Amino acid sequence: MSHIALALHGGAGTIARNQLLPEAEYEYRQALQQALLAGYDLLRQGAPALDAVELTVVHLENNPLFNAGRGAVFTHEGHHELDASIMDGRTKQAGAVTGVRAVQNPIRAARLVMERSEHVLLAWPGAEEFARQQGLAMQPPAYFFTEHRFAQLQEALASGRVRLDHSHDAPLNEPNKFDEDPKRKMGTVGAVACDQYGNLAAATSTGGMTNKRYSRVGDSPIIGAGTWADNRTCAISCTGHGEFFMRAVVAHDVACLMEYRGLSLAEACRVVVHEKLAPIGGEGGLVAVDAAGNLALPFNSEGMYRACISSYSPLFVGIYHDEN
Q1: Binding residues for substrate, per the UniProt record (predicted)?
Q2: What's the pLDDT score for residue 176?
Q3: Among 98, 188, 227, 233, the one annotated catalytic
């Protein structure tokens, strides 16, 4: 029997203490803890890792604080394009969707692609047609609308920029004040888990980039870039500037360093995040777990919304760089 373990992330970037009001910080920490415990309770009941990461991500997708599902950012055209992927480390099967607009929980659609189709990645509109046929819950555009995300879009449109953030960079009492750094906050959610049998799984979901155009797709629905799971090595879910994570094939690269060079989980993650990703301009981080239940949550940005727990380590919730 293995140690059960679960870790999650809710986005990475420039997250400074003086930019997050105490009330907002409390809300984020509570949301991260609730999602983590929901998935961990399943693991404690003997559920497979795949079920745990799916449920954890569903909780984050349902929370408008995060750039996934209900809290997704707006595209240039004023709608939402949602991406998600999931992978089973036991079988190395994977499923993903990209660009869906009405699916309440894209991570559930990704799992159905894996289990009920012959494919790995489906794109809108076909992905949405498939989800409807599978009976998944659909929502109108109003379900995904939040005032904060809409204000971000207006700011991005006015400045002519694509924003990589989904955040509250300004104090909550100044909702229309935005920082000019286009890489302040990368908004993606994800989870990795190890169940009692040593099986691993990973899941990732995102709303993408504010004001994005041309059906841009980042790393979150790309197996090997934003998501990876293999019982022989590790399970990985990434968050950050997707273009760089795709170029570096970050999730798979961590597994390769473990498999081919014999590095530990922690060392493989450190090499990829700090020595390979950072030098090419890739900002962000990841959460990782191996089949022994060891966890790693590295990032090279100022902060990352994150949480973890295992059968031999207590619950941890962190936001800032100096929290361990």
Answers
A1: 216-219, 239-242
A2: 33
A3: 188
